[in-house]
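User: Second chain of the day. Same drill as before.
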Amino acid sequence: MINEISIIPVTMENFENKYIHLIADLFNLYKGKMQNPELKQVLERCCVTSLPDLNADTLICGINPSYNNKCPENFKFSDLKNAPYFSTLHDIISDCKSKDSIEYIDLFCFRHTDQKIIWQFTEDPIGLEFIVEHLKITQQIIEEMHPKTILVFNRTAAIFFGVNANPNADEPEKRNIWMGYKFSGINADKYSELKDLPNVEVKKIV
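Assistant: Same format as last time:
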């Protein structure tokens, strides 16, 4: 997906100053408010976020960090070349000439291994509020980064970008508008190296 939204990039320092506390404040606001004990426990684990260079040309978007018993710690994508999951992403970009201009971000910063928990949040009225408010912060980050290319390898993450949007659906939960992006096709000949890869779609945000 190619992002053509005209946003002036900001600096790395601004990401930490502007967004770390916004994400932490969001978690603190919703902690203890969920009726579902599993959702309540997820928010008690605290948040973890990548620390992207907001001037990156390419952005890889995941869905959320997995959970382990370690103390939560924010991270740099470039430091995780040998870590599970991230090593695969680094292998994918290994032939790119501008690897230093590729960054990673998760749409959500709560720690949980089973991604189905996201839909449990959306089924809870307060949990849905949390998901929406979190996504607003993430979308603001992405649009300030203004990457030339966004790579989404996670199907659930793609849903939140709006690739399956159906605004005319009778039931709101089936509309899948979320971040509200609209897409158009793009000349696939420019991306001939992707033709042999399964389940790859190249779209432009309009």
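Helices lie at 12-30, 37-44, 86-92, 117-123, 125-145, 155-161.

User: Great, on to the next one.
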